[in-house]
Design a protein that fits this description.
heterodimer, A: about 400 residues, alpha+beta, Butyryl-Coa Dehydrogenase, subunit A, domain 1, Butyryl-CoA Dehydrogenase, subunit A, domain 2, Butyryl-CoA Dehydrogenase, subunit A, domain 3, 4-stranded mixed sheet, 4-stranded antiparallel sheet, 11 helices, 10 strands, about 50% helix, B: about 260 residues, alpha/beta, Rossmann fold, 7-stranded parallel sheet, 7 helices, about 25% strand, binds flavin-adenine dinucleotide, flavoprotein (chain A)
Chain lengths: ~400, ~260
């Protein structure tokens, strides 16, 4: 069917329940999120109320078991919800992805008692989470992290500084990776730290190029005491917990990137239909139409790849390689598509009066977070060519 | 004893769609998607809040409308109502507000009620009189157009904001209440609510179940008849008046020609 302007993304969803969920997501995105995006991103305002609304609607626990208050949705469905949210506002889409990542450790590796005690509130939407892996001097080389947790009777005392923490200062709980043993990946343990813990404080948020509504801040742990019942998984298991969460988190970033690219393409389409030059609407010029076709094709390819990886995950098969590929392809696509969207809109695209430049600034960060795209290539190469030789 | 709340909800054509009349000059309900009238979402929201505040309450959502009107019930059920009642009958086609109120009255009595909640007006018919007629038919007090409502000890109280004054109103239950779009934003259904709604009971009734004769309703039973309807003229590009000394005069002439002055 010929389309006049942007159409909703055609999605193949596995159940009627999933179609209803996407309908609910679009409804909330259009009515509660879209109207405030431009102004709040400009002002760097974090929309806590939006997270309350989507939490009450059940969007903060989608891929987790119903038994613990989750929505019991496969990744194939959850990721498409993320994509729709990110297309309207990345701060929300990425926020949901990070929150979901922060729940992962406890949901997958927590004891029965820990899950019963905490998960309902974490997945039920009242609480917002943060995920603390990176540090000022431990970025891509996360295993070199130095934040230390020292045992003191049946408590742990956490000391150190985490960096780049999404929701730093606004989160209700922090999933923290800290060193409890020797150097290297085997000396790291995961903890669930409440946001109001004594000694926990956040620095002023970083002044970022984009994604300004989402606070990214250093978080200081100054003698923060947590009981051993808040240790998640075994001592020394922390890094493998973190990495397993990251495989899923990367799919979240891939879905967000696809949303950002789709949002930019839709804006460009709208603009080209309206704007006339040389006596014709811009959308009539073949040179521009070919760009649109390439953009749409790249987005669809990225979507297909992240969904293929998600289906592997849902089937319980290994998906780390495909997740890295999806993160790489979708975020590089988002960078290219959003750059082209600005180009298609000419001088208007370069101004803050249109959302194209915001999408472009948002796309950039997605090539950096949850493993830079260089790191994704390292991961993919290791999967297909084996580890680098040590000599 | 449990507080029995019945919320009357209407399934209306999406106002953002391209709406038309059918050949018999009734609303063409097949041409555009339908949905739960937005103004009735406020009534559902107030019912949920009243039920939350009560020790024990049961909310029934009731609609009179075609097959697809079940969607309106599902939406209300996914917001948190307990059960649905759908009155559907081919003979209902073209029923006016008088007939609709008869059907609703019989259905409300069939369900059993302490409080009937309505929206302030439907978004398609927009007559805004149904709650009053319904109360009359039921023989119970009507407290209409409330922007604040509460129930306690068998009494409903509320505030009606008029142009000149705000009134505090009170009535004994059972009663019919309508609420305005100022009564408080309706909640979104939750994903769990949507799933739970699929399992909630919806009772289907036809005219004979309610003991209503076909000639009391439908186009035949309607007190009014639509003789003719014309499409509102398309918006034109407008007339541009270039001021070359005569601008003011031309403007005045235009306004006179359009009968504005
Ligand atoms: C001239 C004329 C032509 C009409 N043509 C048609 C037609 O072609 N097709 C047709 O279907 N109807 C037709 N009707 C009927 C009309 O659209 C409504 O169904 C009428 O019965 C109620 O009027 P309203 O929607 O303006 O109610 P309002 O008084 O504006 O509604 C107030 C409240 O009453 C409740 N309510 C109203 N209707 C219902 C309902 N059906 N079920 C449950 N709750 C309800 C809601 O709570 C609503 O918020 C016609 C009416 C007239 C007068
Ligand atoms: C907005 C934002 C939100 C974030 N949110 C979180 C969060 O919630 N939680 C969290 O823990 N972290 C978060 N991060 C941190 C993010 O994951 C890191 O920024 C990322 O892992 C890169 O680390 P770095 O910034 O220290 O860069 P570095 O590791 O210093 O990298 C600098 C450059 O060197 C390249 N590089 C590094 N090592 C290699 C190598 N071996 N081979 C080739 N190239 C290499 C990188 O690709 C990059 O181009 C966030 C970051 C940002 C910007």
């Amino acid at each position: 069917m010929p389309a006049d302007g942007p159409q909703p993304v055609e999605r193949h969803l596995p159940t009627e329940e999933a179609r209803d969920l996407l309908g609910l997501t679009r409804d909330i995105a259009a009515r509660e999120i879209r109207p405030r995006t431009a102004e709040e991103e400009d002002a760097g305002r974090f929309p806590r109320e939006v997270f309350t609304t989507i939490g009450a609607a059940g969007l903060l626990g989608l891929p987790y078991p119903a038994e613990y208050g989750g929505g019991e949705q496969p990744y194939e469905v959850y990721l498409q919800v993320l994509e729709e949210l990110a297309a309207i506002r990345l701060t929300v889409g990425l926020g949901v992805s990070v929150h979901t990542l922060a729940c992962h450790a406890l949901a997958e590796f927590g004891t029965k008692e820990q899950r019963a005690e905490h998960l309902d509130a974490m997945l039920g939407g009242e609480l917002l989470g943060a995920y603390c892996l990176s540090e000022p001097s431990a970025g891509s080389d996360a295993a070199s992290l130095r934040t230390r947790a020292t045992r003191d009777g049946d408590h742990w005392v956490i000391e150190g500084t985490k960096a780049w923490i999404t929701h730093g200062g606004v989160a209700d709980f922090y999933t923290v990776l800290a060193r409890t043993g020797a150097d290297g990946p085997r000396g790291i343990t995961a903890f669930l730290v409440p946001g109001d813990a004594e000694g926990l404080s956040a620095a002023a948020p970083e002044r970022k190029m984009g994604l300004k509504g989402s606070p990214t801040a250093q978080v200081h742990f100054d003698g923060v005491r947590v009981p051993d019942t808040r240790r998640v998984g075994e001592e020394g298991q922390g890094f493998s917990i973190a990495l397993s969460a990251l495989d899923s988190g990367r799919l979240g970033i891939a879905a967000c990137a696809t949303g950002v690219a789709q949002g930019a393409l839709d804006e460009a389409l709208r603009f080209l239909a309206e704007r006339r030059q040389f006596g014709r609407p811009l959308v009539d010029f073949q040179g521009l139409r070919f760009m649109l076709a390439d953009m749409a094709t790249a987005i669809e390819a990225g979507r297909a790849l992240y969904l293929a990886a998600a289906r592997l995950r849902d089937a319980g098969q290994p998906f780390g390689k495909q997740a890295a590929m999806a993160k790489l392809l979708c975020t590089d696509t988002a960078m290219k598509v959003t750059t082209d969207a600005v180009q298609l809109m000419g001088g208007y695209g370069y101004t803050a009066d249109f959302p194209a430049e915001r999408y472009m600034r948002e796309a950039k960060v997605l090539q950096i977070v949850e493993g830079t795209n260089q790191i994704q290539r390292m991961v993919i190469a290791r999967h297909i060519a084996g580890p680098e030789s040590r000599d | 004893m449990s507080l029995r709340i019945v919320v009357c909800v209407k399934y209306v054509p999406d106002a953002t769609g391209d709406r038309h009349f059918a050949e018999d000059l009734t609303t063409d309900r097949d041409a555009v998607d339908g949905l739960l009238s937005e103004l009735d979402e406020y009534a559902v929201e107030q019912a949920l809040q009243i039920a939350d505040a009560a020790d024990d309450a049961e909310i029934t959502v009731l609609t009179v409308g075609p097959e697809d009107a079940k969607d309106a019930l599902r939406k209300a059920l996914s917001m948190g109502a307990d059960k649905g009642v759908h009155v559907e009958d081919d003979d209902l086609h073209g029923t006016d507000v008088v007939g609709t109120s008869l059907v609703l009255a019989k259905a409300v009595e069939h369900v059993g009620y302490d409080l009937v909640l309505c929206g302030m007006a439907s978004t398609d018919g927009t007559m805004g009189v149904l709650p009053a007629i319904l109360a009359e038919r039921l023989g119970v007090p009507q407290v209409t157009l409330l922007s604040e409502v509460a129930v306690a000890d068998g009494t409903v109280t509320g505030r009606r904001d008029g142009d000149a004054a705000s009134e505090q109103l009170q009535a004994q239950l059972p009663a019919v209440v309508s609420v305005t779009d100022q009564s408080g934003e309706a909640r979104y259904p939750s994903f769990k609510g949507i799933m739970a709604a699929k399992k909630k009971p919806v009772e289907s009734l036809d005219l004979s179940d309610l003991g209503i004769d076909a000639d009391e309703v439908g186009l035949g039973g309607a007190w009014t008849k639509v003789e003719d309807a014309a499409k509102r003229p398309e918006r034109t590009a407008g007339t541009i008046v270039k001021d070359e000394g005569e601008g003011g005069k031309q403007l005045a002439e235009f306004l006179v020609s359009q009968k504005f002055i």
